[in-house]
Design brief:
about 350 residues, TIM Barrel, about 40% helix, five-stranded antiparallel sheet, alpha/beta
């Protein structure tokens, strides 16, 4: 079998801080809806992070992305007890692996007004220092109007977009109304499962996460926006996310085609255009065909060559970092993180 190649793939919405979540202790009580899932699992996790566990979480996530043929990540981060410098840590971890990253700190008022302001300052500091970023907002329902307006204004001042979860669950049904006067074409709107109106911007569709959180199907094909694919922190295997995006669409509409989901995957290159010039060699000889990939699980990245000719992955292993060491250090960091959660 002759291997084929594609450009480097892009994960249009990730949470690299969640890479160490696997195997975390069970929550104090079983979640029964979306809001309790956030409170019992994800908001406890982000509050337990420090900069060291964040570094190894981001580095493991970047390595796993590269091993999946993903050379670009649009990340959305929160660590309320380790805000200052957190975006530098993520950017450094990704750079050491060779994966491009666009960072954002998700501001929120759920830790008090000061927490929201600190998040804004971290976004501004990182971008003004030359970091590649967007202004992050956790979700409208966790922010007061003042914080939303200030985040939008800061994005305009810095010439960047806003990266925000929108109407992921029914708790955020008011997001469309509250964002209608703020959203711009350079915004990255994540989920939009329950969005009740059109908003300008690109929509990041995360089918696996939406199923996992039982929030419903977003029906991205019905939107006029550009649609891109993200994972919402469940790895960065974008061929796998593409397959799931197709099957979810097909489950909703029998006329859905793999070509539709592939168009969403390809649109992600608009967010990190340099990845188009990267080259990934795969273990399967028809990766350029959506109809082949949709029905062929287990396709692996063999080699990744960056646009400048640097080999980042050779025979399935990263070249800039020691894969075994990253996994070992990440496991140690996960143990510390899980102890803090317990």
């Amino acid at each position: 079998m002759t291997a084929s190649s594609t450009p480097g793939l892009v994960c249009a919405h990730h949470h690299l801080y969640s890479s160490l979540a696997r195997g975390m202790p069970a929550p104090p009580s079983a979640p029964h809806d979306f809001l309790s899932t956030l409170r019992q699992i994800w908001w406890r996790l982000d509050a337990a992070l420090d900069l060291d566990t964040l570094y190894w979480s981001a580095k493991l996530g970047a390595v796993e992305a590269l091993c999946s043929g993903t050379t670009g990540i649009i990340d959305h981060h929160e660590s309320p007890n380790a805000i200052e410098g957190s975006l530098d840590v993520i950017a450094q971890a990704c750079e050491e692996v060779g994966v491009r990253v666009v960072c954002a700190y998700g501001v929120t008022d759920r830790h008090g007004v000061d927490g929201g302001r600190r998040g804004l300052r971290e976004n501004e500091r990182f971008i003004r220092a030359g970091g590649r970023g967007l202004i992050g907002v956790h979700a409208a329902f966790t922010c007061g109007d003042e914080l939303l307006h200030d985040a939008a204004g800061l994005a305009t001042d810095l010439g960047v977009g806003v990266h925000i979860h929108v109407a992921e669950g029914i708790d955020d049904l008011e997001a469309g109304r509250r964002l209608s006067s703020l959203a711009r074409e350079d915004w990255l709107l994540v989920h939009c499962v329950h969005l009740d109106r059109d908003l300008p911007g690109t929509i990041a569709h995360n089918p696996r996460s939406n199923m996992n959180n039982s929030v419903g199907y977003a029906r991205p094909a019905a939107r006029s926006n550009r649609i891109v694919l993200g994972t919402d922190g469940i790895g960065a295997d974008m061929l796998e996310e593409f397959r799931l995006a197709y099957v979810a669409a097909r489950n909703d509409d029998i006329s859905a085609s793999p070509d539709d989901a592939w168009a969403w995957l390809a649109a992600s290159w608009d967010l990190l255009p340099e990845c188009r010039d990267d080259r990934v060699t795969w273990s399967y000889d028809h990766v350029d065909s959506p109809w082949h990939v949709a029905f062929t699980p287990g396709i692996r990245a063999i080699d990744v060559v960056r646009a400048d000719g640097e080999v980042l992955l050779a025979d399935g292993r990263p070249t800039r970092v020691d894969l075994d060491q990253v996994r070992r250090k990440a496991a140690e960091a996960a143990s510390r993180l899980h102890s803090a959660l317990a």
